[in-house]
Design goal:
elongated; 9 helices; 0% strand; homotetramer; 181 residues; Tetracycline Repressor, domain 2; mainly alpha; DNA-binding
Chain lengths: 181, 181, 181, 181
DNA sequence: GATGAATGAGACTTCATTCAT
DNA sequence: GATGAATGAAGTCTCATTCAT
């Protein structure tokens, strides 16, 4: 009874359920029914809190962007621990791929943002944030290039099903992030 | 009457129409009806030549992989013309982004391949092919890293809507592809 | 089996069912479900044969206009039998009101046409047709005025629930249709 | 705070908003949400003051009848100014059609009254009132016939989209309202 | 071989109504 | 007294798929 009257919590539950479904099955598989079942709310609740499925999808993908951005804090901590940034980054990439649904979440966000301009800002959260972290170790151009390298390597591993090409990535990162780069 | 019996041609027309639709609106927007209308064939033909919509989607995405691979021949020619490979590659990336639907086609293929193992081989066509081209100018690890960088930069441009960060890409490619890399 | 493959018949059955529902419950009460049930076809058939419910509604109301126009042939026959046109017309009005659903059908058509320009032509079938019949007995202006009088009287009877004010109508028609009018 | 407790005023605001919506989009387009938005009251207020949507619709259509009846005062004044009643009435009809939403309001009332007996009395307000005005210039039967003529002509103009057939209407009214009629 | 009619599941969405607050 | 959160029914519509022809 009392817990039912919690609009903010309910809205959050719906968004998180939608985000989880996108991670698991892709943004194209999002339906009101599945979100409602996953969130444990009646079907009508999904349309009560969101104008349309597109609106819900947008909210879920923006939440996904924040989930990805939160991961940046972990990466930041690890990079600040010292050690070779190239090696640390490569290790982080390997760990990133271990949680496949979460890794696919970023891919879904990217694909959606490519066609939906309102998601562009969300899509840039990760790359801009990571570039910011790497700017400590290299110039801005090199930092951005390193981000492209990381994203390309992660995408390649996810789409080909092959393990991360760690040696190639680490060597390349070292070349890019070295003071001479 | 006017159209001779040409099962292979009809099948190809259907696949190409599906591929064009994926490029324009995404794989999720694929339906029998739209494909049939686009290909100029009766609705029944799409189910006659393909077991299911998933089957048609798979064929279309594999065709998309070949379309991308064909582009590699253009890139190969340009790279063979001599000149700085980093500069040439960067220029090619800029040209690549000019045809947005075709550029999105690879994104669709990647997203689909991440969830459908039968498409992994198709998804690897591009990266393996490009790595092969670049192996002329650098070692295999550097070539693969350069592919990751290119794919990451292209994806970033597509998803953020920003222009290609050509200076960062070119400098990074130069660092990766230089004999010293 | 064999009877099921009759697209034209099926389309007609759907239109007639929709028209009957409009006569009974009004155009606003038209739904796919009710039409399908009334016509004895599956739910999907109503959307297979008509692009949208608006499309079906339009077809049904145009059919209604033809139903009304068919009645004009009866009126024509009665008016040609000789006798006082005013008395005959008044009698026909009384008979018209006896079949209440059919009488309401014209009201629905009028109301719909007032907001949907594509129905204007259909709505004019009755008044133009009746004016044509009456033009034999009076000038065109008087004929049109007589049509207005008849339609106004019928509408008044239908909406107030009172019986047709036959004496007033007949006297007025006589005044309008008399040679001196 | 700013809005004092004014139940009667709020109820009236809701009814007037509903009436305006019926005039604009038809009675079938009436919903609690739209009425609440139009009246500037909370959604709950529409169900708080009216038992059901049907109840609200009835109140709105009865208000519409009063709006139409109010117009009779204007017509009364114009008819009392002297001059040819037929010409005056015809002119008033033309002015009536100039405000299309208000003109459609009477059509909505008529259509609703044809199916909802509780609205019959409201629907008769206009015709009885107008007949009362015209009874000054002619006998009761002629006055009623003139009302039918006017209503039929107005309906015809509204539904066919054609301008009022003023010559036919004026001539007919003159024939009906002349002392000899 | 080929096609378009056909259908039933299921998608999105709106909404009247209820009711806890 | 008043309100907005809440919900389940029902609406429109799309569509993959089947199948008679």
């Amino acid at each position: 009874m009392s817990v039912r009257r919690d609009p903010a919590g309910r809205r959050r539950a719906i968004v998180e359920a939608a985000c989880a479904l996108i991670a698991e099955d892709g943004a194209a598989a999002l339906t009101h029914r599945r979100v409602a079942a996953r969130a444990g709310v009646p079907l009508g609740a999904t349309t009560y809190y969101f104008t349309s499925l597109g609106d819900l999808s947008r909210a879920a993908l923006q939440h996904a962007a924040e989930v990805c951005a939160q991961l940046l804090r972990v990466w930041d901590g690890r990079l600040r621990e010292g050690g070779d940034p190239a090696a640390t980054l490569t290790a982080l990439c390997g760990e990133y791929l271990a949680d496949r649904p979460r890794a696919l979440l970023k891919t879904e966000l990217y694909t959606a943002a490519a066609r939906r301009p309102e998601l562009r800002q969300a899509a840039a959260l990760w790359s801009d944030g990571l570039a910011g972290l790497l700017a400590v170790h290299a110039g801005p151009d090199a930092a951005r290039a390193a981000v492209f390298l990381v994203d390309g390597a992660l995408l390649n591993a996810l789409t080909t099903g092959r393990p991360l090409d760690a040696p190639a990535v680490e060597a390349a990162l070292r070349a890019l992030l070295s003071p001479a780069g």
